[in-house]
Design brief:
By secondary structure, this protein is mainly alpha-helical. It is 49% helix and 4% strand. It has helices at 10-15, 46-61, 70-93, 108-126, 131-134, 145-154; strands at 96-98, 104-106. Strands 1-2 form a two-stranded antiparallel ribbon. A hairpin with a 5-residue loop joins strand 1 (96-98) and strand 2 (104-106). Helix 2 runs antiparallel to helix 3 and helix 3 runs antiparallel to helix 4. The longest helix has 24 residues, at 70-93.
Length: 160
Amino acid sequence: MRPGPPPTPTNLRLLRGNPGRRAINKNEPRPKPKTKAPPTPNDLGTDGKREWKRLAKELVSLGLLTNVDITAFRIYCDAYETYKDARRNIKLYGSIIPSPNGFLITSPYVHLANKSMSQMVKLMQEFGMTPSARTRVEVEGKSSDEDEGKEFLFGTGNNR
């Protein structure tokens, strides 16, 4: 591993105008985006499956989910499932619990929730699923500002 921050993806550098003027890797792999959402993995739990179904179609439509990204998306859904489970247990048992010797300690579910949340945020940024990450992603074929404004005001047409 090299020291320092991870390299900026080539397409992002090009969108920014290649501010560092470093040579562009012309041989960088460019996987083909999927045309439809991949099937939900059977071994995901209820929350993970729900999250997969909620996001897969959207990521495919934006061209952000390819065959080589499925594992990363799967890990995100696993982390989401773990996070939801940990949050349920925190609600049930509390975030501070007595230890076997009587001292109050932070529940292990708090650590689990925080670790899962950290994994989720990292993967959400990779897929452009946070507000700041979306500012760095440009999608071809995006609707006009006027269409976006109408969608914001009136919804997607499902509830007119």
